[in-house]
Design brief:
- There is one protein chain.
- By secondary structure, this protein is an alpha/beta fold.
- The chain has a single domain, classed as YqgF/RNase H-like domain (Nucleotidyltransferase, domain 5).
- Helix content is about 55%, strand content about 20%.
- It has a five-stranded mixed sheet, with helices on both faces.
- A hairpin with a 3-residue loop joins strand 1 and strand 2.
- Helix 2 crosses helix 3 and helix 4 crosses helix 6.
- The longest helix has 21 residues.
Length: about 170
């Protein structure tokens, strides 16, 4: 084998290694939150950044700092790069009374974690979450804590779909 052949083989092997690294490069993960007065629904994106999965429903504490610390622990556990927080608004687009509280909570969480906060339109997500639970055969009395997780999942999935752009939603004919 001459030097030229050895260089060619090295280049081919190096390109394959480079392609493997590019394909297996991790996508940023995000935590999705549906923040309410009594509970916080939590979801997380998968390692590919394609889908959102429900994680848990956090019962709110009387001390907001405890809630923030619990969420910061989840951020570390899942290694997230950012947090998507449902931004409550009326159907007209005007901020709801809950919006200021949610935005202040999101800002405090961003300060504590040092992560980027993405406020995301959450209009009708709780309603849609209830509809999904009905379709799954759950009675209204069984929705309880699960509905907040489902709403957080819907918020995060909407964010992920928007980030992926329209090309990701196209399918071949």
């Amino acid at each position: 084998m001459d030097l030229e052949e050895a260089d060619r083989r090295y280049a081919i092997k190096h390109q394959a290694d480079l392609r493997l690294r590019v394909v297996s490069a991790p996508h940023p993960r995000y935590l999705g939150l549906d923040v309410g007065n009594r509970r916080i629904g939590v979801a997380v994106s998968d390692e590919l950044g394609l889908t959102a999965q429900p994680v848990l429903t956090l019962e709110r504490h009387s001390n907001k700092r405890d809630d923030l610390r619990s969420l910061a622990r989840l951020c570390r556990r899942f290694g997230v790069a950012g947090i998507v927080v449902g931004d409550p608004a009326h159907l007209s687009g005007e901020p709801s009374p809950q919006a200021a509280k949610t935005q202040a909570f999101a800002a405090a969480l961003g300060e504590l974690t040092g992560l980027a906060i993405h406020l995301w339109d959450e209009r009708l997500t709780t309603h849609e979450a209830h509809q999904l639970l009905y379709q799954a055969g759950r009675k209204r009395q069984q929705h309880g804590k699960v509905v907040d997780q489902v709403a957080a999942t819907l918020i995060l999935q909407s964010f992920l779909d928007e980030r992926a752009g329209p090309s990701a939603l196209k399918t071949d004919p």
